[in-house]
Specification:
Radius of gyration: 24 Å
CATH superfamily of the largest domain: Aldehyde Dehydrogenase, Chain A, domain 1
Largest sheet: 7 strands, mixed
Shape: globular
Number of helices: 15
Number of domains: 2
Helix content: 25-40%
Distance between the termini: 57 Å
Oligomer: single chain
Number of strands: 22
């Protein structure tokens, strides 16, 4: 066991004291000595005390990542060796999957079987990008006539230090979707998990160290976004900021990054449309629509929260989705047969409740749900609001809860117009028995991912990202590497 593992071993030490930071291969506390409580959203109880980093710790983490990059601590290894380390990290994640899932469930509230699937998907990220470490190539070209021939070639090189700021709704996946491609590209990293859900991100730091990632290549610091996150976004030694979160915070990162013109990879808010045509197979569409909005208690950037249904099947679809929502079992993540867990916090519970009340005040019809469940934890009923219109806040703003707004349409053109009437463009889906209609509509929708008779699929293999205010750049697939690479041209005469 390494010195790092001896100093602190997750998850055992989470019970015995404050959870430390990982900086330059060492577990450490902050200069302030302060800690932040981490809560179980299913009970409201404190489950850990996590070290509260400040600007000083952010500076130390960036300095460690810069040293590691400049001395080629990671890139001096062969591409095959780096790929093997990423593959080993995935193996360690799978070996510890049950424990990781249990802590992911306890920290964010999602039912354990779904948390287990999240661990698998996070491990897939490292396995997939392990295969890319030896496939990042440039190309060659000859230019000009024979007597003045110039030979050129391109190199794809790591950008440098990447600051990664990830959200609370899918902590392990969000961290892995940034770490895996950045490491495959040869970058060094500072990861800041959300204040609400830091535990599995810190555990992932330990896993990467055990897999063989050198000291300083991956640093994990926890703390508030307005201090730690802001320091990272502004820091002159950070070359890329990779952020997943709200559009509002994304805008602040854009402004902060102007100092040294950092590269940015931003996956921001969504208000994803779902279109159900009159010919759709409703036995598939209704549960598909419900899953698109209610999965993970609606705490998904790409959740299908705006439903447009052809008038010929409108009443049937509204009733069907509402009935499906009522059948979903909401409960604590370790209970048997639970479909949905709690919202992440009391703050989020109040936010979701306020949106439902706002929709009703503006004239929406509450078909089902709309209320808190119990008094312990932050559970909320799956909610369907019918007869909405595009002017309502529930149809224009990201709620991040299990709330669906539904309205009818008459023609395909009207459906597309409604779907595109948004400042967001992260995801969408269309449900139809006519494949040609499905593909035609997919081409017309302004979104980074469109499903036909499915809302969420593709995993690590297909790029995901947003149009308009849903972000810049792409995660997943080969395209994710672009955010962490620079292209250099080298030219020479042949004479």
């Amino acid at each position: 066991m390494s010195a790092l593992d001896t100093a602190w071993n997750f998850p055992h030490s989470v019970h015995t004291g404050s959870v430390p930071l990982l900086i330059d291969g060492t577990w450490s506390t902050s200069a302030s000595g302060q800690t932040t409580p981490t809560y179980d959203p299913g009970t409201g109880d404190v489950i850990a005390q996590v070290t509260t980093a400040g600007p000083r710790e952010a500076e130390l983490a960036v300095a460690a990542a810069r040293r590691a990059f400049d001395d080629q601590r990671w890139t001096r290894l062969s591409s095959a060796a780096r790929g093997a380390i990423l593959w080993r990290a995935a193996e360690l994640m799978r070996e510890q999957a049950d424990e990781l899932a249990a802590w992911e469930s306890r920290n964010m509230g999602i039912p354990v079987p779904q948390a287990r699937a999240m661990v698998d998907e996070a491990a897939n990220q490292f396995q997939y990008y392990a295969g890319w470490t030896d496939k990042i190539h440039g190309h060659t070209v000859d230019v000009g006539p024979a007597e003045r021939r110039v030979q050129g070639y391109t190199l794809r090189e790591p950008v440098g230090v990447v600051a990664m700021i990830v959200p609370w709704n899918a902590p392990l996946i969000s961290a892995s979707k940034k770490l895996a491609p950045a490491l495959a590209a040869g970058c060094t990293c500072v990861l800041k998990p959300a204040e609400e859900t830091p535990l599995t991100a810190l555990w992932l730091g330990q896993i990467l160290h055990r897999a063989g990632v050198p000291d300083g290549v991956v640093n994990v610091i926890t703390g508030p976004g307005d201090t730690v996150g802001a320091t990272l976004a502004e820091h002159p030694d950070v070359d890329v900021v990779a952020f997943t979160g709200s559009t509002e915070v994304g805008r602040s990162i854009v402004h902060a990054a102007t100092g040294n013109l950092k590269k940015l990879q931003l996956e921001l808010g969504g208000k994803s449309p779902v279109i159900v045509m009159g010919d759709a197979d409703l036995t598939r569409a209704i549960p598909g629509v419900a899953g698109a909005v209610f999965w993970n208690t609606g705490q998904v950037c790409a959740a299908g929260t705006r439903l447009f249904v052809h008038e010929s099947v409108y009443d049937e679809v509204v009733a069907g989705v509402a009935a499906h929502g009522r059948r979903l079992r909401v409960g604590y993540g370790t209970e048997a047969d639970v479909d949905l867990g709690p919202l992440i916090s009391g703050k989020q519970l109040n936010r979701v409740s306020d949106y439902v009340a706002s929709g009703q005040a503006q004239g929406a019809r509450l078909v089902t749900g709309g209320r808190r469940i119990g008094t312990d934890g932050y559970f909320f009923e799956p909610t369907v609001l019918a007869d909405v219109d595009q002017s309502m806040r529930v149809m224009r703003e990201e709620i991040f809860g299990p709330v669906l707004g539904v309205m009818p349409f008459s023609t395909v053109d009207e459906a597309v117009e409604l779907a595109n009437d948004s400042s967001f463009g992260l995801a969408a889906s269309v449900w139809t028995a006519d494949g040609s209609v499905g593909h035609a509509v997919a081409r017309r929708i302004r979104a980074g991912r469109v499903g036909i008779n499915v809302h969420r699929a593709g995993g690590v293999y297909l790029p995901a990202g947003g149009y308009r205010q849903s972000g810049w750049g792409r995660e997943n697939g080969e395209r994710a590497l672009d955010s962490y690479l620079e292209v250099k041209s080298v030219v020479s005469t042949l004479a």
